[in-house]
Design goal:
The chain is an alpha+beta fold. The chain has 2 domains: 2-137 and 272-361, no CATH class; 156-234, Sandwich (lipopolysaccharide transport protein A fold). Helix content is 60%, strand content 17%. The protein contains 12 helices and 7 strands. The protein has helices spanning 2-38, 44-61, 63-80, 83-89, 94-97, 99-136, 238-245, 256-266, 271-281, 283-298, 307-333, 339-361, and strands at residues 141-142, 149-154, 159-168, 173-182, 188-200, 203-213, 225-233. Strands 1, 2, 3, 4, 5, 6 and 7 form a 7-stranded antiparallel β-sheet that branches.
Length: 364
């Protein structure tokens, strides 16, 4: 038990040191990047705040790399001081020596998903808001794509497709907007065009709007009506619109299941969000795979030679697993494989392969 606590403490300190080093390095790198982008157009204090707001998302992205480097640093230190030799001589196998680091890894992964993930979501939104304000002088206008912004809202009685040339950051103010309403059977019943539309509580407020009925057997232009202002009921909210064309990472994991349900009810595709949810839930297992890969190549005694080669192989394998995970995520978002398979298959396969390697090299 004392040995387990010792290994747990050594691994925790190794992780903290590696995390702190990357924290300091990335603050400086991001601050230089913000100064390059904005130069003298923004106060230095605002640039520091931008860097600090962008930092949690950057650290969260490279958390697997931090984990494998912390693992390599710990076991290289134990091998250099011959502590692993003493551990084996005391009858402790490699897998038993890994129990404490593995438990610490799972705890770190749980904290990252449950606590750090909402922090990243909040800081990412604030970073986007401040960055857009600095770029556009406070106008906060965002061009979504070459074809404009596409949204859809609906209920049990109708579905409405919305297209706009431009939108603000929250998606609550649309320019050159078109509304086409469909019946549940799929036929269009009305078309609306307006110079602008603003989302308020319970509906869209249109300005300079023109409406055409699309019923069969009539000339739509003959029955068209012009309105200086017009209100269209809507169940959408600013958060739902922003998150629907934004990244799933901007939504805290605790709110993601309910948000997926709302997206599906409103007629949006929630595949990306489902895959992201499963990827976040699988993060502790992915971090555990990184620890097992790193330990598998660095637990040997340094007198065996080729330590640098072993470290390089471990890092390269971790990068390969990271890219394999991203590739599986893309397949899941495209609907080619189930979301659960895309998220859980790479880390579980890596854990199984790493355990086999450890059994072969250390206990076989």
């Amino acid at each position: 038990m004392i040995l387990h606590r010792y290994f747990a403490r050594r691994f925790a300190w190794s992780f903290a040191g590696t995390f702190g080093a990357f924290f300091a390095l990335m603050v400086l790198i991001d601050l230089v990047e913000q100064m390059r982008r904005f130069g003298a157009d923004a106060p230095f204090g605002d640039l520091v705040q931008l860097s600090l707001l962008n930092l949690p998302a950057a650290l969260y992205t490279i958390l697997p790399l931090i984990m494998v480097l912390a693992t390599i640093a710990m076991f290289l230190g134990l091998s250099r001081s011959s502590e692993m030799v003493v551990t084996r001589a005391a009858g402790r196998s490699a897998l038993k020596a890994l129990i404490a680091p593995m438990l610490v890894t799972l705890i770190i992964g749980g904290i990252a998903v449950g606590v750090f993930n909402p922090i990243v979501a909040a800081t990412s939104k604030e970073f986007e808001t401040r960055e857009t304000a600095l770029q556009s002088g406070g106008a906060s206008v965002l061009a979504i794509s070459e074809t404009g912004l596409w949204l859809r809202q609906g209920n049990d009685s109708s579905q409405t497709v919305i297209r706009a040339d431009r939108a603000n950051l929250d998606g609550t103010q649309l320019q050159s907007v078109t509304f086409i309403t469909f019946t549940p059977e799929g036929g269009p019943v009305r078309r609306l065009e307006a110079a602008s539309a603003t989302l308020s509580d319970g509906g869209w407020d249109l300005i300079d709007a023109k409406a055409w009925p699309l019923n069969e057997g009539i000339v739509s232009e003959q029955f068209a009506t012009v309105h200086e202002t017009l209100r269209i009921p809507s169940t959408l909210t600013a958060d739902e619109i922003r998150d629907s064309f934004g990244e799933p990472s901007s939504i805290p994991i605790w709110e993601l299941p309910a948000f997926i349900d709302r997206l599906e009810v409103a007629g949006f595709s929630a595949t990306r969000h489902e895959v992201w949810l499963q990827m976040e839930l699988a993060l502790p297992a992915f971090l555990l795979a990184m620890v097992l890969i790193g330990s598998g190549f660095t637990m040997r005694h340094q007198r065996g030679g080729k330590t640098g080669v072993m470290v390089l192989v471990a890092v390269m394998l971790c990068f390969a697993l990271f890219f394999l995970r991203n590739f599986a995520q893309i397949l899941g978002e495209n609907g080619q494989i189930p979301a659960v398979l895309a998220a859980w298959a790479p880390p579980l396969a890596a854990i199984a392969a790493s355990l086999g390697l450890l059994l072969h090299l250390e206990d076989g």
